[in-house]
Task: structure prediction
Amino acid sequence: MQALSYYISLPFIYLISVLPPRLLYGVSDAAYFIVYHLLGYRKKVVLENLRRSFPEKSVREIDRIARAFYRHFCDIMLESLKTLTIKPDTMLRHCTIHPDAQRIFDELADKKQSCILVMGHQGNWEWGGNSFSLSCRQQLDVIYHPLRHPYFNDLVTRMRRKFGTRLIPMKETFREMVKRRKELTATAFIADQAPDPNNAYWTDFLHQDTPFFWGTERISTKLGFPVVYLFIRKLGRGYYQMEAEILISDPAGLPEGAVTEAYARRLEQDVRMQPETWLWSHRRWKHKRPAII
Result:
């Protein structure tokens, strides 16, 4: 059954991938109408997340952000499919790297210094990975959760590897990073999803008690890699820019939680600045902080 659904969908996926931008975003507009107005996909989750994150905003402002989020969400779903057939020069026109960010990665490469990238599900993270692999000397390794559907997992894997990005299943992260530590790498952690609440760093994030993964901090400390924060800013429909800053140049000796707290504060700043481009449909606050016994 999984194979049947995949092969029925595949021609439509490739058809969308070859559409010119005007038609692609026309399909996205139609998808927005269906997803938001007809299906109401996770609308309750999105609105609740927004209300709790921005208690100072009016009902009208929350509604405006929600609608803008759903339009952006439909755009990035179709933009991601565009990766199947997009050319390198087109990719680099639609997702650029800021000169200051390029300088950071060039200087790290000159020193043969690998790094850890931390980012959120904001902007178009799929295009960001593609453009990074085309723009930077570091081998980009992305930590990911394999999809349950094996055929669509293979499709997404091909899309992400198209321009040289490597994928590391989350359970194999540390072992693979140790194995590759002599290479010049940038290992990307999209670390804003909900971890196991009993093994998480808890902090206030967007007015809510929020857990974050410990893994990024612990791996950066053990390997001595600097931590670089990456933000993918949306410039306009179909156009993005990668911005970067060194969040922690040397994690050794820092108190526990310092790296994760710095990431949470920086991510919160960008979510507030461009809220409609963050993934509000994720059940980010489904866990409660465990009671201390």
Notes: The chain has one domain: 2-277. The radius of gyration is 19 Å. The CA atoms of residues 147 and 209 lie 28 Å apart.
